[in-house]
Design goal:
Structural class: alpha+beta
CATH superfamily: Dimeric alpha+beta barrel
Strand content: 25-35%
Order of helices and strands: EHHEEHHEE
Number of strands: 5
CATH architecture: 2-Layer Sandwich
Number of helices: 4
Shape: globular
Largest sheet: 5 strands, antiparallel
Radius of gyration: 14 Å
């Protein structure tokens, strides 16, 4: 299992919309994530920064995320959520959410 943490900003004027969307996340999108071996996915908010945490139980992250990106419901979901977000300038090439480095774990 791989723990993944990531950050992105939410545009202040889109915060209410972002919260509304996630209060009723689409079951089809959640199913696509589950099929891609994603579990225990949470998003937290502080000021205008979103912190996402998930656990990946698969063997090929890139292939599984390509499957998620090809999912029609996910494409429609992202068309609504992406305009609410503002990526970090320091993100790596190709990232929307900036991945974070793990520096501590207590199990």
């Amino acid at each position: 299992m791989q723990r993944i943490a990531m950050v992105i900003n939410v545009k202040p004027e889109k915060l209410d919309e972002y919260r509304r969307l996630h209060a009723a996340a689409w079951p089809e999108v959640l199913d696509a994530l589950r099929r891609a071996h994603v579990g225990n996915y949470s998003i937290f908010l502080k000021n205008h920064t979103l912190f996402g945490y998930l656990e990946y139980h698969g063997n090929d992250w890139d292939a599984d995320m390509a499957q998620v990106a090809a999912d029609p419901a996910t494409k429609r979901w992202w068309a609504l959520t992406d305009p609410c977000q503002e990526p970090w300038e320091s993100r790596a090439a190709g990232e929307w959410w900036a991945r974070m480095e793990s520096v501590f774990l207590m199990e």
